[in-house]
Each structure stands twice: as structure tokens, then as C-alpha cells.
Queue: 2 jobs
Job 1
Amino acid sequence: MMLYKEPAPIKDRENPFESMMSRFNIAAEVLGLDEETYNVLKSPARQVIVNVPVTMDDGKVRVFEGYRVVHSTILGPSKGGIRYAPDVFLDEVKALAAWMTWKCAVVDIPYGGAKGGIICDPYSMSAGEIERLTRAYTQSLVDIFGPDRDIPAPDMGTGPREMAWLMDEYSKTKGSTEHAVVTGKPLVLGGSLGRVEATGRGVMVSAMAAMDKLGMDPAKSTAAVQGFGNVGSWAAKLMAERGVKILGVSDVSGAYWNDNGIDIEEAIEYKNNNNGRLEGYKGAEQMDPDDLLTSKVDVLVPAAVEDVITIHNVEKIQARLIVEGANGPTSYKADKIINEKGIMVVPDILANSGGVTVSYFEWVQNRMGFKWTLDRVNERAERIMNESFERVYAASQKYNVPMRIAAYIVAIDKVAMTYKYRGGF
Ligand code: GLU
């Protein structure tokens, strides 16, 4: 068995905002976007930097830097998660906010885009410290957030627990219970059935739609999933249920491979009983994490962080299909080689939009004061994902561009048209 090796450092981490803009520029040119609209869409509408003091368990006060970037409110209130990570930075949050704008437009839900982040290491903090941090961050952004203004959600390092604290803190300030100020809440607090698995489910639906176009039989196909957090583990489980053999998975503890297919249910159970990590999982051989992305599989699902498919490994990728569960997993420079190799990519702003779609359903249910069944949530989300896939696929045929640029075209076209109708600001 191979010993655990740290994943290679990112050698050419591109600036994520510039990476997003490079694709935006290509799509804007294909669309013939006018200069006024281009200028409106190219910069975030609002960027807020906060510094929040938090009393740590040892009694000392630490000051944390946090961000909330609202990229656009043209389609409606801005929507997007909050990321807790030690290396989160403003240009990353700006890119993630813009991706939310395009994502909501691709799936045709009435939201603009936003994203938040706090520089912190939630895995080395106590629950009490994270709670105080979340409440302090919410207090400092109480004038930005709002059910009709800006609606946060979970992202990397946050989940239902943090959303509950956010909702409670916001509600206390307003003096009324405000369920709809945030999505991804626990079920008992107005969360939606199906929200937790929604992003992974959408990844599976997109993968099935793409395989259909490529004439691939799921029951005869293999896949590797990079990242075994919420998105990756659900995508792997649901793809396996449709017959896809998942040969490799990875998380921060390493990468795991089984020629006969990994028993995903078992791997998830192992991870849940092992502090969320696959470390020590015996149902597969350990492999070099760098090799997972270039392994011999039909479908590759990067479901972790940005910039993992780069000019350093793209040549070696063997998959025919890449379905982006993460936001921005492919660097801009790698796009060209992917296209030359004839690999189909279901881009992030389409493939992982199932999460925000069910966030929208949660917000709708909160405002109706009514709860949908799981079947209703899944059925509607699946319909939206399939319709969006077809819209993007049709645009890729019409403009003769890859799926990624087609998704930007669909999104920018929608936002630009709405901007025109609203008559500017
Ligand atoms: N953070 C998730 C994303 O990147 C979900 C956002 C939301 O539900 O608002 O899509």
C-alpha cells in the first residue's frame, strides 16, 4: 500500500476572477454584448470587507477578516454561499460571486449572485468559537443580508449548523423570525427536504444527460470523483445507483482506488464514522492523489476546489467527460487543451447548480409557509437541471462553442436582456 502523500501544491493557481473573466469575455464577444452592459456586468456591484472580533475559548479576542461580495442583483436578490477557509481571498470570493450570477441565470431562477468568505480554519476551532464568529459576521452584514436583498447559503467549511446561527442572529436583530434570509438550514428550522444532497444530485443528473448525448451507457461506464465531501459523495452514490462503476475517490486524506468499483455506501458510512475523512478506508487501495485526475476512467468529477485541472495535468486526462461538481475546478489555460482533446465538459455553473436550485425551493417554501415533499423537490430540480442542460447544449450547437462558453452565453444573454428591460439603474 502506498503511503499518504500530500497533494502537489498548486503550481499555477490562476487568479480566479481573471479566469472567470476570460470565459466571460469570449462569451460576450460571441454574443456581441454592447459596451454598456459589458461594463455593468464585468465588476461586482458591491464588495464588503469586515473585520470581526471574536472571543476565543482561551479568553483572548481574535479579529477575523470576512467578505461579502454582491456581484449582481439584476435578476433578483443576490444569492450565494459563505466559505470558511484559511486561504479564502477577495478575488476568489469575487469570482465565486460572479459564478453565482451566471449559475442562477443558467437555471433560470430569479436571483442575482453573491458570495461570502471568512479567513479562518473551522477544523481547528471549537463549535462555540465558530458560533460566535458566525454571529459576529452576521451582525456586521445585517444591512446587506435580507430575504429580498441578499440570501446566503452553505459553501465549503459551512453547513446547516452555521445557517441556523445566521438565521437566528439576523432574526433577533429584526425582532421577527426570518426563515427566508438564508437557505441550507436544518429541516426543523425551515430547511428543505433534499437540500443537503441537491448539488450532488444535480451533478448526477447532468452526468446522465451528457452521457446520453455522447452515447455512453452508464452501466458500462467508469468514473473517478475527486473530493468526497457533501457534493462528491452524493454525486458518487447517485451515479453508482445508476450503474456507473466508481473506480476512484479522494479527499484530503488521500486517494483510493478499486478496479472492481468502490462500494460507495460503505465508503460514506466509513467516512461518517471517521470524522468525515476516508483516512484508513480499507475497501480500496491507496493511490497517489495526483494520479486520480488522470486515471483511466470514462467520467471525471472534480468536486473539491478551484484549479485542479491545469496545464500541468490536462494533457494526461483520459476521461471523455468531465462534470464539474466544484466551482472553478478547471483553470482557464486548461480549457483549450480540453477542447482540442475533444473532452466534453459540463461546466460548474451548470453541473453544480442543483444546490442553488433547491435553495430557491427552500426560499419559496419559507415564503409560502409550506413544506414540499421530497418527491416534489427532486422532481422539480431534475426537470430544471435537464431543461438547463438542453438549453446550454442547444447554445453550444448554435454558436459552435464548447459547453462552458455556451453556459456563459445562456447566462449573460439572460442577465443582459433583463438589464435592458429594467432600463439600467
Ligand atoms: N454554495 C453553493 C454554490 O456554490 C450553494 C449556493 C446557494 O445555495 O445559494 O452553488
Job 2
Amino acid sequence: MSVRRSRLAPSPTGALHLGNACSFLINWALARKNNWELILRMEDLVGPRIDLSSIKDTQSILTWLGVDWDGEVLRQSLDLIPYKDALNTLIALSKIYHCNLSRKEIEQAASAPHVDDPLGKKAIRPLDISSHNTSWDKQSTNWRFRVHDEPQVVCDELLGKTRFNLLNDFVVWTKNDLPAYQLAVVIDDARQGVTDVVRGHDLLESAAWQSQIYVALGLEEPQWWHLPLVVGEDGLRLAKRHGDTRLLTYFESDMQPEKIIGLIAKWCKITKIHETLSSSEFLQVFDIRKVNTENIVFTKEDEKWLLG
Ligand code: GLU
């Protein structure tokens, strides 16, 4: 039987927080419990400038949490050729077209479907994509993937089937001559032999887009596992307003990682009260079937226990 493989794919920006720790730990425990391989990939193509020290910090934080991985770490920015090859294949297949709108305008167009909205009109794809691409003047430009008109169904191991009506052609290559997240992640998961993608629920809709790239390139789609997000008591995603929940802050203070792991164990319903736990103790009692599909709430009590 061929080996199953999952991956940890942090964007090493220094902004990783408790919600990320929860996803990493569940991903790790799911892989280790089932004898899957688990690889680590640094997604350092997008976002604020990423330097070597934030990559090192991210690895140190994972190790501190007792999360280990197999093999060499891949750093996306070191070799852009696999992404460029995929871009050229998609151009040759007429699956993508260049577009002079900014990425922000393209994203806004997705939430501005009114016909009389000038941006909505401008963001509509050209009628003949192949002739559009031959007129490409090699100026810096965004490249957009032509989504099909049928609803896209994502089959998730935890959430079942979700249908998406994708409204907008999404960006796969940016004006800065870099692959966008949607393309880079598919190319890497495919070339790294990832069979199981385990990550936060906020990327569920991305799976619908990514599915279309898999099909266009004739690649095998992985199994999806989208995990609950951690939110504050106000129901909103963890952010500064909920206090400083960055892992780097905890790591640099004298907090015991066993507290964070214990908190995640309680969130995963494998313990009932706040108690410290090592990652190997977490692994012993971990059961994916107990993990919530609803958001997890980081309560004031959780915070008091963690910082107390
Ligand atoms: N690097 C992405 C993030 O940190 C995760 C991508 C993925 O898991 O597909 O949000």
C-alpha cells in the first residue's frame, strides 16, 4: 500500500497564533496516529517580507510544541521553476488569461456582482481567452484562472460535501511575477506527493479553486480535512483585539508548551479540564472523531489558565 502523506505549511511571518498551533497539533497527531508521513513546507512567497530568522523561529516553535516532521524542509521561494512551468502549461491550455486589474480589484469584483457596477463589468473575462493571451505584451500582469460555471463540490473528510458557486476567476500569478498561493500550493502538494491536506476551515473555499487547478493539470486531488477555526468569545477570528496570542510571544516568554497543548486537548474534547499535557500524551489520547466541526472558542477562562 502506498504511503499517505500530510504536510505542515506555515507562512512563516511571525504572526502564527493559537489557532495555528491547534491546526498543527491536530495535523501532526492525525498523521502520527495513522502512520502517515508528515512534511514541512515554508510558504514564504506571499505576505510581508520573510527573512531567515522568521523561518528559523517557526521551526523552533513547532519543535517546542513537540511537533516533528519527516525529511527536508521545502522553502517555496528558493526555486520558482516548478510554478513557472505550471503557469506555461496553463497558458498553453488556455485555462488562464492575463488581466490588468489589480489583485485587489479582482477580489473586490467577486463581492460586487451588480451588472451596473463598472468594476463588475471590467472583471468579466474576455470572450476569447486564447487571442487575449497572444496579445500579451510581457508587461507585468496578473494571470487569472477561468473557473467553470458549474457548482464546485468539495468532499471533506470531516465536513462532508460543500457546494460552491465560484463567482470570480481567481489569480494564479501576480503582477510581481510570483505564483499566487492557489497555484503554488497545488504544485507543491502534487510534486511532494501529499495525499491528505489538513488545514484550517478558512481555506475550504480555496479547495474548490484548487480542485479546478488539479483537474486542469491532470493531477490527482488530495483528500481534504478542514479543521475548526479558533475564535474569540465575540465569534470573530483570533486577532489583536483578543490579546496577544502569537506563538512567538509565548515561546519567548517562559510559558510551558504543555499548557498550550493541554488547552488544545481540551478544545479537541480529549480532556475535560484545563491540565498540562506533553505532545506524546496528547498523541496517545487523540481521536479525530472527537474534534469539533464548529468553531472553537478561546474563552476568558482559557486565557486566564494559559497566562496564570
Ligand atoms: N500557508 C498557508 C497559511 O498559513 C496555509 C496553506 C495551506 O495549508 O494550504 O495560511
